[in-house]
C-alpha cells in the first residue's frame, strides 16, 4: 500500500527544517510552566515504559526521562531522529509512524503525543487512536498536546512546517472516547507572545475491554 501523501509531506518538511527547529525548541519548556505541569501530571500516572510519538529532536523525551520515566522516542523524520540521537545519546530513538508502531500489544505504560497528531487529517485520526490503544496496557496513559480551535470547528492552518489542524477540545476528547479512552483531565493555555493559538492538553487513560467509558 502506498504511503499516504500527508505522511511523506510531513516527513520531508521536518527533514528540511530539522536543525533550525531543534535550535529554536531546545530550551522551550523552561519558559512554559503550565506545559511542564501537565507533563509532570502524566509522569505521576504513567506506569512502565513510555513513548513520545512524534518526538522531533527529543527534548520532551529527555524531559520525561528527567521526570523519572523509562522514555523513548519515535518520529517520522529520519533527520529529526539523527539529531535526537546526537543530542541525547543515552536515550532510544527510532524512525516510525504513529499509525503503525512496531510495538507489541499492551507494551507501553504511557504515550505522549506532543503536537504531533496536529498534522493528521481529521478523517485519518481514528486509526491513530486505535493504534495508541493497542500498544498501551490497560490503565496506560495518553497525553495529547495540540492547538485548540477556540470555539470553531476543526480547522486547517498554515503551520510553519507542514499543514496542521486546530481542534475543538471536546471533539478531540470524543474521538479518544470512541477509541476506548477515559479522560483524566485537561488543560488549556492562552497563547504567549509570538504564538497565534490557544494550546490544548488532554490527559486520558486506556480502559480495559468491556469497561464502560464515562464521558
UniProtKB/TrEMBL annotation:
Keyword annotations for this protein, in alphabetical order, are: Methyltransferase, Transferase
- Which domain of life does the protein's organism represent? Bacteria
Q: Does the keyword Heme apply?
A: no
- Which part of the chain is the Methyltransferase domain? 50-140
Which Pfam families does the record cross-reference, listed alphabetically? Methyltransf_25
- Tell me if Transmembrane is a UniProt keyword of this record: no
Q: Name one GO biological process term.
A: methylation
For this UniProt entry, the molecular function terms from Gene Ontology, in alphabetical order, are: methyltransferase activity
Known PANTHER family for this protein? TRANS-ACONITATE 2-METHYLTRANSFERASE-RELATED (PTHR43861)
Can you name this protein?
Class I SAM-dependent methyltransferase
- Name the lineage: Bacteria, Bacillati, Actinomycetota, Actinomycetes, Streptosporangiales
Amino acid at each position: 500500500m502506498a504511503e499516504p501523501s500527508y505522511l511523506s509531506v510531513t516527513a520531508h518538511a521536518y527533514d528540511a527544517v530539522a536543525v533550525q527547529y531543534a535550535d529554536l525548541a531546545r530550551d522551550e519548556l523552561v519558559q512554559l510552566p503550565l506545559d511542564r505541569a501537565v507533563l509532570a501530571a502524566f509522569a505521576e500516572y504513567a506506569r512502565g515504559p513510555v513513548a513520545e510519538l512524534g518526538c522531533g529532536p527529543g527534548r520532551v523525551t529527555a524531559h520525561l526521562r528527567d521526570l523519572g520515566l523509562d522514555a523513548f522516542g519515535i518520529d517520522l523524520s529520519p533527520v529529526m531522529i539523527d539529531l535526537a540521537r546526537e543530542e541525547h545519546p543515552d536515550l532510544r530513538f527510532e524512525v516510525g509512524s504513529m499509525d503503525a508502531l512496531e510495538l507489541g500489544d499492551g507494551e507501553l505504560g504511557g504515550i505522549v503525543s506532543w503536537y504531533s497528531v496536529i498534522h493528521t487529517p481529521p478523517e485519518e485520526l481514528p486509526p491513530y487512536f486505535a493504534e495508541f490503544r493497542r500498544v498501551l496496557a490497560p490503565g496506560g496513559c495518553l497525553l495529547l498536546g495540540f492547538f485548540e480551535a477556540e470555539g470553531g470547528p476543526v480547522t486547517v492552518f498554515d503551520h510553519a512546517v507542514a499543514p496542521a489542524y486546530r481542534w475543538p477540545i471536546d471533539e478531540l476528547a470524543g474521538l479518544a472516547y470512541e477509541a476506548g479512552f477515559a479522560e483524566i483531565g485537561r488543560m488549556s493555555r492562552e497563547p504567549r507572545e509570538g504564538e497565534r493559538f490557544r494550546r490544548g492538553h488532554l490527559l486520558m487513560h486506556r480502559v480495559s475491554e468491556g469497561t464502560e467509558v464515562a464521558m
